[in-house]
Write a structure and sequence with these properties.
Layout lengths: L2 H23 L10 E3 L3 H26 L5 H23 L3 E3 L1
Protein name: DUF3784 domain-containing protein
Keywords: Membrane, Transmembrane, Transmembrane helix
Organism: Romboutsia weinsteinii
């Protein structure tokens, strides 16, 4: 198994615990950015659900990478997948007026 796949898999529980902390402390994830203000309290639950969805995608991608024997390109593809997911979360939250720019 590739070291990058192990690092990617170890990131998943860290990301879940970080977003759980954000949910309990009512903080916007630093991945979304500090330039956003929460306009509806449902955003924090939305952020956590989005985190679970992102981590599920990353876990499935890690399984795929292990089966298909991806090498070092795995980490690049994982970072792209992660940032696309974060961008979609930010876009949907803005469209639903959960957050707004300060």
């Amino acid at each position: 198994m590739n070291v990058f796949i192990i690092i990617g898999v170890l990131f998943i529980p860290c990301f879940i615990f970080y977003n759980l902390w954000c949910l309990k402390n009512r903080k916007v994830s630093s991945w979304i950015g500090n330039k956003h203000q929460v306009t509806q309290d449902i955003y924090f639950k939305f952020q956590f659900i989005s985190c679970i969805f992102t981590c599920t995608l990353m876990a499935l991608f890690a399984i795929f990478a292990t089966i298909s024997n991806l090498g070092n390109e795995y980490i690049v593809l994982l970072v792209i997948l992660f940032h696309i997911s974060i961008s979609i979360t930010k876009f949907v939250a803005t469209k639903k007026n959960y957050i707004s720019r300060i």
